[in-house]
Amino acid sequence: MSPLEGLGRRSLFKMAGVAGVAVAGSSILTTQTAAAATISSPVEVGSRYTSGFRTSDRPTHAGSDYAPKVAGTTGRPIYAIADGQVVRAQWNALAYHSGIAVIVYHSALGRYSYYGHLASYKVSVGQNVRAGQHIAVMGTTGNSTGIHLHLGIFGGSLSSPSFVDPHAWLKARGVTPGVTAPVSSSLKWPYADLPILGYHTTDSHNAWVKLMYDIGYRNSSLSVNLQSWLKAKGYYTGYIDGQFGSMSVKALQSLLRDRGFYGGYIDGVRGEMTIKAEIRFLNDQRQYY
C-alpha cells in the first residue's frame, strides 16, 4: 500500500540523512544505578527471536535478530531500549555493520545500543530519546535476507566496541523481546498501536481525525472528512452532509474489506467487527509516519 492509506500523497516522514557523532559522557555508573534505569523491549510483542549472539554457525554475529510476527511484514516499529542520545543515524553507522542503522548512547548504563538493517528512522543525531520511544522502522537494508532488527549492545567506544549478548542482557533486566511489551504506554498513535477494541475510544477517534487532517481533509467534522475521503476513493456516492449513517458505513466497510481489514457483511452497521477493522487499518497507517 502506498503512503497514508494509498492516496498517493507525499509521505509525512522524511528520513533524516544527517551523519555524525555527538557522544555523551563516557563514565560508567554503578551496577545499582544501571539496574534502576527503565529498560524497554526494542520490538513488539509477538516478534520472533531468530538469531542469537555469536552462535556456532555465526561466530561473528555481534547481536541478536528479531523478525516480525509474520515473516515479511513491513512497517513494524523499533523502540529505544533505554533513555539516551542518538549519536549516529545513517547508512553503515558502525564498522562491519551494513545497512541503515541508529546508534543510541545510554549514559546511565555506560553502553550503546545499535539498531540495524532498518527501513527508515525517525530520529536525528543529538536527539534525546526515552525508553520505549519509537525510533525506527524494521527493514532489510544492507547485508540482510529478510525483514528483521539486528540489535547490538556494546560498551567501549564507537571505534572500539565491546559487544555483549543483547538477548541475555535484556533478559537479565526483566525484558524478553517479543514477549515483554515495549515501554510505550505513554505514546499515542501513530507512535504506538491502538488496542484492538470493539468500540471507539478517544485515542482511536483522534487517530481518525489526525489521519484525515494529514491527508488533506480538514473540515471540523470528522464525518464530513470521512465521507469526502470515501467519495474520493469511489466508495461513497451520497451527499457530503456529515450524517454518518448506513450508506456511509457501507462505504467504509467496503473500503476496509478491499484493503483486507474487514471480513464481515456489508450491512451498514458500525458494530464491533467494523470498528476492530477500522483500528487495524489505523494501526497499519503508522508505518507511513
From TrEMBL:
One of its GO terms (molecular function) is metalloendopeptidase activity. Gene3D superfamilies: Glucose Permease (Domain IIA). PROSITE patterns: TAT (PS51318). CDD domains: M23_peptidase. Pfam families: Peptidase_M23. It comes from the Bacteria. Residues 70-153 form the M23ase beta-sheet core domain. PANTHER family: MUREIN HYDROLASE ACTIVATOR ENVC, PEPTIDASE-RELATED. This is Peptidase family M23. It comes from Tessaracoccus oleiagri.
